[in-house]
Amino acid sequence: MKKVALSLKQLKHKKLLLALIVIILLICIGFVSAGFYFFKVACVPGPKSFLSSSSSKLTKSDPLYHEKKWFRDSTKQKWHIKSADGQYQLTANYLPYHNSNKTVVVLPGYMDTKEDMGEYDALFHKMGYNTLTPDPRSQGQSQGKYIGYGWPEKNDVKKWIEFLLQKKGQQQQIVVYGLSMGAATAMMVSGLELPHQVKAFVEDCGYTSVKDEIEHEAKALYNMPAFPRFPLVEILSGINKMKVGYFMKDGSSITQLHKNHRPMLFIHGDRDKFVPTEMVYQNYRATRGPKKLWIAADSAHAKSFANHPKAYRKHIENFLTKYVK
Length: 325
Hints:
By secondary structure, the chain is an alpha/beta fold. It has eleven helices and eight strands. The protein has an eight-stranded mixed β-sheet with strand order 1-2-4-3-5-6-7-8, sandwiched between helices. Strand 1 (77-82) and strand 2 form a beta hairpin.
């Protein structure tokens, strides 16, 4: 009888252990499935419910009406290169300013295109600059499978700079400007070995790292508490490593800024909820070159130019005048 009771007890323990293993496996499958879902939401190009839809209709009530109209009426040259890894065909707009030897490389934000940056092309054109505005890989007319949040794109930007110098001559003076994801890309570019013709950077509302931004959006968009945010973001990062080629923590603006010694102007709205305003202070502290910070009052994400068009131009113009002659 004792042997039978012991055998039944062991069988019960085995069933409990098996049930526990099944539960753990189901939880793991659930987390991995959720990781793939959020990877698709965050990193695969397509319509995004969390992005406000932008209208292509131009109205005179728009504070940047004249800039956008100028861009629409302008003749754009189409430039093409292969991505830095040789996988994709990339496209850009080039707008010349007479015989100027000064060019701004204008970098769009998340899911934006070169056409969405028309008012910034106009801004710099009025300052006497040519503008080169690429579609990031997988956005606009550029090929690609995934949104890289600036980390793989940084090498594409370096290649655009080298192409610009080949095409327009070694006398070019180059500024790199970025908005939102483009701003993070600009900061990531700043840590690369670049031609001496790159004179300065301007970043507007860029994040500290890809992982920091994903963590923030998990909280802001999905009200996700610490658990299950961990380990979900780590799983998402692992999927990103497999698909895009890097862990999200490695996509760091701060790490790249530590290597930068060129001048940089930092701009951020004080009401930015998409890329929290506090991130700009961390980025500002990280850079090693000459720097200036402007916090735009009463401005949400990427709205500083629209809210303060005159001040926006003045801050940029005053900063660049010191470094681009």
